[in-house]
Amino acid sequence: MSAIKSCNTKPEQHIRKALHRKGYRFSLNSSKLPGKPDIVLSKYKAVLFVHGCFWHCHNCHMFKWPRTRKEFWDQKIERNVQNDKKKQEELLNSGWRVGVIWECAVKGKKRLTIESIMEDTIDWLHSGLTYFQIEGSCN
Q1: Cα 42 to Cα 30: distance, rounded to the nearest angstrom
Q2: Within a domain: residue 1?
Q3: Dist. CA 138–CA 83, nearest whole Å
Q4: Is residue 85 part of a domain?
Q5: CA–CA gap between residue 34 and residue 32 (Å, rounded)
Q6: Which helix (H) or strand (E) element contains residue 80?
Q7: For residues 22 and 121, what is the distance between their CA atoms, to the nearest angstrom?
Q8: Which long-range contacts (CB under 8 A, 24 or more apart) does 18-23 make?
């Protein structure tokens, strides 16, 4: 498990490159903000989390409960989910807008195109809505 990255993952890199190509500037993994968001767009008072479907218990084809050490994994993943909710709530309460892009939207058999992810993300940035989420296709 020590080889598993918590930041600078492939899905994050895809999102960052696409945002940068579109002219958006941001900072990364700000330890000054709750939850240390993956991408911080200060100009829009918005943060983006690029969540791994396994580690954050997303209800999609990419999440499977481990068959061994069930109690350990139940506690670990549930702790992650509760921590996500708490940190997102703290961000929202302090005036930040929160976006979540799930790993299954960027990779996997039900992924979306990076163009459609960027279109939805940019629409959200300019909308003023406080929360937004993108996940892989249902089809």
Answers
A1: 11
A2: no
A3: 27
A4: yes
A5: 7
A6: helix 70-93
A7: 11
A8: 18/114, 18/117, 18/118, 19/118, 19/121, 22/118, 22/122
Is residue 55 packed enough to be buried (19+ CB in 10 Å), middle (13-18) or exposed (0-12)?
middle
The pTM score is 0.89
User: Any residues with CB less than 8 A from the CB of 95 and at least 6 apart, and which?
Assistant: 45
- As a whole number, the mean pLDDT across the chain is 89
Alpha-carbon span 60 to 58, nearest angstrom? 6
CB 105 within 8 A of CB 117: yes
Phi, psi of 28 (to 5 degrees): -120, 145
Within-domain flag for 27: yes
User: What's the domain range around 80?
Assistant: 10-134
Number of domains in the chain: 1
Look up the CATH number of the domain holding residue 34. Answer: 3.40.960.10
How many helices and strands in the chain, by DSSP H and E? 4, 5
Sign of the four-CA dihedral 15, 17, 28, 97: negative
pLDDT tens digits for range 34-56? 989 999 999 999 999 999 888 89
